[in-house]
Amino acid sequence: MKHKNKLFLIIVIFLLLVNGYFYVIPYFKSTHQNLELVASDVSINSNDLINLYVESETETNKLYSGKIIEVKGTVKEVTFLNNRNTVILYGNHKTSGIICDIHESQIEKIKKLKKHQKVVVKGICKGFLKDVVLLNCYIDLKLNE
């Protein structure tokens, strides 16, 4: 009987470790990769990305979460709060947008951004929490100037 309990415990621990590896660890992987010269996996406009997440978060996460994506959109707001440089892009969905956490090397570029300016932002998609979240973002101003 004790042997069966030990075997059961080993199986449960193994399943928890496997589950953690595939579902938890990716959220803690470093996102400080230099994306400036890296090709994006996908290019999409902000309205389409937000609509996909609002319609089916689970399916859209399978497509985009953890991938380098390039998003074309319009600047709603630029903030410099809590040592974070953030650009928020508009979407046609009233309650959702795209939060772009900007890489520290891009600070001079985002200081030049203006509200309603069209931009192209490349970053790592981390999912949807009322807004789509992109990390380690780079801005291509050449397309906007």
Structural summary, described in words:
Helix 2 crosses helix 3. The chain has helices spanning 2-23, 46-55, 57-64, 107-112, and strands spanning 42-45, 68-79, 86-89, 98-102, 118-129, 131-139. Strand 3 (86-89) and strand 4 (98-102) form a beta hairpin. The protein contains four helices and six strands; from the N terminus they run αβααβββαββ. A five-stranded mixed barrel has the order 2-3-4-6-5. Residues 25-31 have low confidence and may be disordered. It is elongated, with a radius of gyration of 19 Å. 25% of the residues are buried. The protein is of the alpha/beta class and 145 residues long.
Pick out its properties:
145 residues; alpha/beta; five-stranded mixed beta barrel; 4 helices; 32% helix; elongated
In short:
This protein is α/β, with parallel strands linked by helices and 145 residues long.
